[in-house]
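Predict structure. Chain length: 336.
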Amino acid sequence: MVLEHGGNLRQASIHYNIPINNWLDLSTGINPNGWKVPLIPATTWSSLPEDHDGLEAIACEYYNTEQLLPIAGSQAAIQILPMLRRPCHVGVLHPSYGEHEHAWKRNGHHVTHVTCDNIDTMLPELNVLIIINPNNPTGAYFTLEKLLSWHKQLSKRNGWLIIDEAFIDTTPQLSLASHNPKSGLIILRSFGKFFGLAGIRLGFICAQPQLLAQLSAHLGPWATSNPARWIGMTALQDTSWHQTARQNLIKDSSRLQTLLNQNNLTPTGSCPLFQWVSTAQAKHIHAQLAQQGIWSRLFSAPLSLPFGLPENESDWQRLDTALKHISKLHFTETDG
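Prediction complete.
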């Protein structure tokens, strides 16, 4: 089974017969104005990656945690973690990033969907609880107090609380990484979303040392490339860029919310990297946008569309024009 993700522009290009360079991609929630990569030293291409080159220490400082493991994107940890427990009962937030559920089911675990409203009721039945904070695609946030309470309950029976913090960089004060290492508390951090560099495949997992050692053994040597490690070290230390990027993302997310509101698509939830619109018209809007060369990600349960941020003023105007066109078509069809 292959799950659908954001991106997939090549497929969209073929299906809608629009050249790939003519698309405006709003489907991923990746910062469209990411950190600008300088010239990478030639030595990073000619030598094998080495641990203890400084990346771990720099990342620990950025994520405000004591110990972590660099990985090839948080997806690597998502795939391996289910292998480290015997089959058990796993609660996965729904709707959310589908790879979590897929990975645990594939490894023989019993997976139950949980919602923000019923986690407290369901928790006594669970051995593992998986939360995305803020959630993808709904943008829902969970408080530190609530998360620590769930962890405390799970840890009493050797359970795990896994928190995927892929979109939390704009609100670092809400991260639970500073509470690690704790037994049964596992934090996944994505580098690509906030820094806008998904292509280098870099992420981090914060957990207790024994679990990190197990993960490292499964990953084997050279789990992250030299260029990715060099970029990670350099970008994670660029504190001036971090501050400016957070301010700009929050401002642009607010602008996107206003734009959607003005075009009768009131967001149901949001975070600084995307706005989530839950609507029965999601399939229609997705198709209408695609016909205009604007790519969005369609969720079927519930029917909804998360919208990422445009990159520049031209893209903002293009989105506004497309949404106005769709809104006009909708009202014309309704009137007819």
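Summary: The CA atoms of residues 40 and 133 lie 33 Å apart.
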